[in-house]
Each structure stands twice: as structure tokens, then as C-alpha cells.
Amino acid sequence: MPSTRPNQLFRNLNAKIASIPMILTAVVVFLGGTVWTVVYSFTDSKLLPRMRWVGLDQYERLWNTSRWLISIENLLIFGILVLIFSLVIGFVLAALLDQKIRFEDTFRTIFLYPFALSFIVTGLVWQWLLNPDFGVQSVIRSLGFENFNFDPLYNADIVIYGILIAALWQGTGLVMVLMLAGLRGIDEDIWKAARVDGIPMWKTYLFIVIPMMRPIFITTLVIITTGIVKVYDLVVAQTGGGPGIASEVPAKYVYDMMFLSQNLGQGFAASTIMLLTVMIVVIPWAYLEFGGKGKRHG
Amino acid sequence: MADVGLIDHAGTDARVDSKALEGPRGARPRRVLSRRNIILYGTLFVVAAYYLLPLYVMVVTSLKGMPEIRLGNVFSPPMEITFEPWVKAWATACTGLNCDGLSRGFWNSVRITIPSVILSIAIASVNGYALSLWRFKGANLFFTILIVGAFIPYQVMLYPIVIILREMGIYGTLTGLVLVHTIFGMPILTLLFRNYFASVPEELFKAARVDGAGFWGIYFKIMLPMSLPIFVVAMILQVTGIWNDFLFGVVYTKPGVYPMTVQLNNIVNSVQGVKEYNVNMAATIITGLVPLIVYFASGKLFVRGIAAGAVKG
Amino acid sequence: MASVSVKNLDLSFGDIKVLQNLNLEIDKGEFLVLLGSSGCGKSTLLNCIAGLLDITDGQIFISDRNVTWEQPKDRGIGMVFQSYALYPQMTVEGNLAFGLKNARVPKDEIEKRIARAAQLLHIEPLLKRKPAQLSGGQRQRVAIGRALVRDVDVFLFDEPLSNLDAKLRAELRVEIKRLHQRLENTTMIYVTHDQIEAMTLADRIAIMRAGAIQQLADPATIYNKPYNRYVAGFIGSPSINFIDGTIEVASDPVFKAGDTTIDLSRYAFSGNGPKPGAVTFGIRPEHIFMDKAATDEPFRADVEVDVVEPMGADTLVWSTLDGHELRFRVDGQTPLRKGDRVKVGFDPARASIFDAETEMRL
């Protein structure tokens, strides 16, 4: 008796059953949720979502709201500065740690520990450190520099830099670790060849090692960027968006619209813009990394 | 026997002449205080001080009394050490109407973190196992969606999840939050486990199948025992990640069950009353203590965890 | 005139002594191969000569100049690595020129040197490509070119062919030999674990083990008169047969193992001649003959065939001689089966005998 070929559906049945949570998450929450939010960003949902189509009204209103414009401006300044500083500082620290130094583990542990902390903790610590009456400003004034002024958290013009300091304190360690992993992945023989060729160390880094680490730089850039767009807790803890609305960010705008102002449509539209921002960075990267002509890095 | 080219065991070649050992010999001379070392270690120490400063300020502030703080320098060590702020932060600090301190948030966070960590790791490890060794049609499509989902800002999915949780009747409860953490932990953990299981020699898996073991048999009897390190990495990742979460806590729970970070923020940033900086800093340290302990205890595994999460597989 | 000399070199990492009191003199134009299994210190020694590792004690001279404290770039060496170590973001031309540009060599001189190297190595058509677009063999040619343009007297090769497949390896091996023949007066030091590479390329081979040189001699001597038991076992494939036994000296010295007695009157003992005592007798499989070919050999015996391994051109036979395993090589067409009893013979003059205790050649 020839055995019949088992139904395709039941092949790997256990694997399929076990994957149900993943499939539900991917399809219902991630895909479905995203589509749902984008669709409802074209409605005039207020306290509750409702399917009354208003076209691009929400977006028009969004881009006419000064708070949103400030949020976007902050995000741009903050984002660009975080990118530059964390990449540069992170790479330099990694390069320093890569010099076969003593106590490498200790230094690495110190540079990375803030990354283990919550943004809330980071925000509150730096709020305290930057407190004009007791913190850095007052200490430096008490040293004799009485005209020293550094109160970012109470000065709308520079508040974003106060947040930047905290963000760099927390995040640079991560960049350093990624860069260090990249440096350690460089073939030892490349360094030897450069030494035999008589190429000075800084030139070896600049012209040979950094170009070789391009994939790591790009991956790090994507990670930092997606993190920047999501920045929320840090601002809530450190400034609460203040003074006034000077340190508002898009993620906070979304939360406030959805859960405080009963203005769901605005929240949906704002979060859709956030999604677009991330996609602008992620899609070219994903194409480079996974698409294109298959594997390119090696 | 010179023609044989023999050398004796001391290794002295017959042709080595005796005038040899003049001039430079041995290692290059090297000064401990070379300019290079001064710059190198100088920079590292300055940067290390910058990184440690906030931790130091947190600790000293939390050990001072308010009068001493009002005198002014955040960096000066406490003249008189007091643990009062710690006690107050833990047991009696107020958020809104509750005046039972951070302890409430701490226990909430414990009740959120433990089930979330277990559930998310259980599901993600099975996902990774199925994806790497039992590939079925379409599996990679779902996995791709999952990974792309990891890049989508959470804000986009916040409200749809509110609706899902409300439909399930668990909106505003710890159960709901556990589910949310499980969902959002899934991409990175699945990736972590998938890459790990993909590095297990496939012969092992084939041998087990020939021996008649099935999906669950291979998972529990072979894969699980040999992948303890990766489970530890996943645990470190999740414990710190979930403990530090603020956004999901504030969106999906209600004041009575707020996790510690949310409660901390409410204590410190509440507008009413006189600011008690020492209590605030004590509360901040207490909240940061769990991830810090995990971090310092786990050492290189923490690094491995974030590297595995960050650098693609 | 010595081109490279290493004098009383010591290298330790902490408490671990990697190289101990090592001495080596290499003549101008010589091709010296450092041969040994992994971890024997051969690459370490090469890195010391290059100046990539700081030595603990001793001196290094290159072209009669004490370079012990010199930087690698100032030692007058070029180096080729196992992993090629090409700069991936630069073209082949860029790779060749980068070091020269840094040394501020004039532009037309750089071009001239690159043209010459490219012509010598047949890489002219590749100059505008990047390393990723090259095959392994082409990459290694470029890496050799990078050493060549430095216009130096000493070339260091660190297992340059180990990352290539067998066919390419054989091709490039000949290429390197040809290069050495064309560049008279260029000294080459070549590290490998592959004995075929060593035998084919070397003027002299230094066999290393545990940080010390076991024997330094030309390939024929290493093969025919291994200095100790380790060298005998390391060189030769299939490897040499060892039979433990004793030497007895009556009128003529004989080797005895069980019931087998081998007359050693034709064996050239070194030093003070034969002494009775425990020894290991070594005879290479290719020096043992069978049947008719064996009839004229001074020593003959009957053996039983255990295993036959046909390898095409020839066949390796595993047999038992009086309880001792004996491998020998016969023509690939010889019909043999397990259990056959055959007559074999060899000339003890071609054997190598080692003291059982010191493992030194007698």
C-alpha cells in the first residue's frame, strides 16, 4: 500500500503552531497596527477613533502647529549633533581602548554603564547636575567665575544642548562598544602590513581602517537614528518639554495628543510622520545591507 | 659533520661570531611616561571622570541633608551622612495621593519584569529555533516583517495596541503590560536566538531527527541545554530593557500599578511642595540599582547582548 | 656576507618563553624556509625579524646593520601575509603606491616601480581593480607586488599560500621560485607548515619545534639525514617507519628487534661510531622495495600485507614485519591483497638510526 503524501499544511505542523505568536505579532500588531494608524491619520478622530475621512487635514494642521514645528526643529538639531558627536567620540574612545592599554575592561565598563540606566534616571540626574542654583553653574561661579552662565534647562535657546549632553552621556558607550567590535574585527595583518609600509597610525585609521569599517558605521548610524526619532523619556524626565515648549520632541507630541489632549487624529498624523522619517533612513540601509547584489560586505 | 648542517641543541650556529652582542639589543627602550602614554591615559582618565561624575553626584546628594544641599556645591562630599532620604524615597515619598514611596513602584516593576522576561524569552527562543532549523514556507516573510517592525517608532503602534488590550479586557493591568513587553521584545530576541541556533552544527539537528526526536524533543533535550549562555544574554537584555521602560508603563497601566520609572518621574517632577533633592536622588539611584547590578554582574555578557542586538546577524 | 642574522634571540610573553636563545645566519640571496607545525614559533620568529614584535633579548641584523630597535619600515624588508592584508578600499595600484607615497618617493619613481612589479607578477591588467574583484591567487600576487615595490633586499613570507586551494598553491609556488631566481641577491625568508613548499622552494630549511630550531640544512640533508627523530618523523609523506630495538656490536654492528636482525655495517655512523644500546631504527617507505626489486637489497624479509591504499601513481602498503608495522611504497599497478605474503628489502645505508633516549641521530 503506497503511503499517501501528507498534506502540505501539516508538514512542520509543530513549528507552525509554535510560530503563531510570532505570526500574530508580525501581522496583527506590527503590520496591522501600522496600517491602521496610517489610515486613521486621514480621519478626524478625536477622543475615540472614528472613520470620518478628512484627507490631509490633520497633516495640514500639524504643519501649522508651532509646537510641532519646534519639535521637528529640535529633533533635527538634536539628531544631527547626537549623530556627529556620538560617532566621533565613540570611535575615538574605541580607538583609544584598542591601543593594548591596561585596565581596558575597567574603562569599557565605566564608559558603558550609563547605557544600562533608564532614560528617566539619566534625565533626572542631569536635571540635577544642570540645576543653575546648585549644579555645574553654581559650582563654577563659586570658583570665582561669577559671570559664568550655563543653565540650559532654564534657557529656551540652549535647552536642547542640555538634553544633548545627557543623551551623549548615556549613549556614547554603546557606539564605543560597536566600534570596538568593528576594530577588533580588522585583520591583524592589515595593521602589520601598514607598519611595514611605514604608514603612520592616524593615517592607517583614516585611510584604511575607517573605510573598512563602513558597514559598522552604517549599522550604527541606523541604530542611533531610530533611537533619536523615538526619544521621549529623556525629555519628559529632564525638562518636561520646557521651558515653555522649547524642548518638545515629536514622540512627546504624539503621546500628548493621543492620551492627554484627546486629539487622536493629530497623534496618528504625527506618528505617521515619525514613521516616514525612520523609513527614509532604514529603507536605503536595508537595501544596501540585505538587498542589492546579495552580500557585499566581507 | 659540517656538511650535514647540524647545530647543537643550544642552537648556536657555528658561524655566529663573538663580536655579536654590541649595540642595540633586546626590546626597544620604552619610557612609561612617554608623550603617547600621557595623552592616551590622560584622555581616558578625564573621560572616565566625566562618565563617573553623575553617579558620584547622585550618591553624595542622596546622603546629604537638605540644609547642606542648600549651601551649594553638588560635588562636595557629605559632611554628615544621613540615610534619611533613602528611607523616605523608599517608604514615604508621595505621588499624587499615594504616600508609600517607591516601594510600590519597585514591586510593580518586579511583577512586570519577571513574567515579561520569562514569557518573551520562551516565545522568542522557540521562534528562533523554528526559524533556524524548521523553516516552513512563509516563515522568513513573517520574520522580515518582525525585524522591520523593530525599526517602526513605537508611537505608530501605541493606539492600535490600546484597542487590542481593551478588547481583551486587560488594558490598564499588569497582564496587559507583560503582553506588550513580550511583543516588543520579540524582534530583537528572535533575531538573537535565530542567529544562535543557526550557528549550531546542522549535523547535530539531523542526527537527532534520524534518532526520531521531534520538534519539541529536540528543543528541550538538545537545544535548550546547550544554549544556556544565550539565554543569559537574552535575560540581561530583557531585565534591563523592561525595567528601564517608561513609555509602555505610562501608556498601558494605571497609577496604582505604575512601574518604578513612571513613579520615579512622578515623584521627582511633581510640581507641588518643596523640592527635596536628596530624596529625589535617592529615588533615582534606587531605580537605577537593578539594571546597574545586572550590568556590573554580567560584565562581558551585557556587551555581547547589545552587540548581538545591534550588529545584524 | 650575511644578509639577515639573528643572534641569541629570546622572546617571552610574561612567563611563557616563545623563542629561546635562537641563532640564525642567512646569506645574501638565500631562500630560507622556516618549517614547523602550528605553534612552533616560526611565524613569531618572522614577526621578530620584521620588527612587528618586540623581542625580549638578543639582536637582529639586516644587511649588516643592527636593526634591533628599528621600526619595521626602516629595516629594509617587504612582507607578504597569509590573509594578503590588502587595503580593501584602494585599487591594486593604490595598494602598491600607498607605502611609497608615505615615504615621499617621487611620483615617476613610484610609477616605474609599480610598472616593473606588475610586469614581473603579471598583474598589469588588474591595476585598476579593487581587491574584492580579484581571486585569491591574484590577491596574493598583488601582496607580493606590494613587497616588491619597496625595493628591498629581504622578503618575508608568512604562510603566503595557505589560504589558496591546492592547484593555485602549486602554481604560485613555482611563481615565487621563479621570482627568487630573477631577483638575484634578494633574500627570502618563508614561513610554512607545508613540507612540500619547504622542500621545493628552500635553499635551506630550518625545522622548528617549541621555539627552537631542530635542524638547519639543505632539503636533501634534511630528508636523508634527519638530525633527530622529530625531524625524521616530520619530513616525508607517507611518514617514515620507526622500529624500536637495540644495537649490538659484535664484529659488525647489528640492529635487533625481536627475531629480526639488520646488518648495519653499511650504515654511516656519526661521531664515534656504533655503541650498543636502545635505539629507534627509521626507514622511509619509498626506500623499501618488493619482490624482484628487493633481491639485490642488503636486507630482505618476508612480510604479510595488512592494508593496501592505492593512490594512483603508487600504492602504499601497510604490512607487518615480525610484529612491527612496516609501510612501503610500490608501483600503482602492483596487484596486492590483504593477507598476501611478499618479500621486501632495503639498504640499511639509507636508514636513520636514533638514540632511544636522546632521540639524536647516531
Automatic annotation (TrEMBL), chain A:
Membrane topology note: Multi-pass membrane protein
Keywords recorded for this protein, A-Z: Cell membrane, Membrane, Transmembrane, Transmembrane helix, Transport
Similarity-based family: Belongs to the binding-protein-dependent transport system permease family.
Domain of life: Bacteria
InterPro entries: ABC_transporter_permease (IPR051393), MetI-like (IPR000515), MetI-like_sf (IPR035906)
Location in the cell: Cell membrane
Recorded coiled-coil stretches: none
Pfam families according to UniProt: BPD_transp_1 (PF00528)
Residue intervals passing through the bilayer: 20-42, 75-97, 109-129, 158-183, 204-229, 267-288
Annotated ABC transmembrane type-1 domain residues: 72-285
Designated name of the protein: Sugar ABC transporter permease
From TrEMBL, chain B:
Transmembrane segments: 38-59, 112-134, 141-164, 170-193, 214-237, 279-297
Membrane topology type: Multi-pass membrane protein
Keyword Acetylation: no
Source species, domain of life: Bacteria
Keyword check for Isomerase: no
SUPFAM superfamilies: MetI-like
InterPro entries (UniProt xref): MetI-like, MetI-like_sf
Domain ABC transmembrane type-1: 106-298
Pfam families registered for this protein in UniProt: BPD_transp_1 (PF00528)
Subcellular location: Cell membrane
Keywords: Membrane, Transmembrane, Transmembrane helix, Transport
Principal localisation: membrane
PANTHER family referenced in this protein's UniProt entry, alphabetically: ABC TRANSPORTER PERMEASE PROTEIN, GLUCOSE IMPORT SYSTEM PERMEASE PROTEIN GLCU
Family: Belongs to the binding-protein-dependent transport system permease family.
Protein's name according to its UniProt entry: Carbohydrate ABC transporter permease
Lineage, broadest ranks: Bacteria, Pseudomonadati, Pseudomonadota, Alphaproteobacteria, Hyphomicrobiales
TrEMBL record, chain C:
Listed PROSITE patterns: ABC_TRANSPORTER_1, ABC_TRANSPORTER_2
Pfam families named in the record: ABC_tran, OB_MalK
Stretch forming the signal peptide: none
Occurrences of domain ABC transporter (ranges): 4-235
MF terms in GO: ATP binding
Keywords: ATP-binding, Nucleotide-binding, Transport
UniProt xrefs under NCBIfam families: PRK11650.1 (NF008653)
Family classification: Belongs to the ABC transporter superfamily.
The name this protein goes by in its record: Sn-glycerol-3-phosphate ABC transporter ATP-binding protein UgpC
Native source species: Chelativorans salis
Gene: ugpC
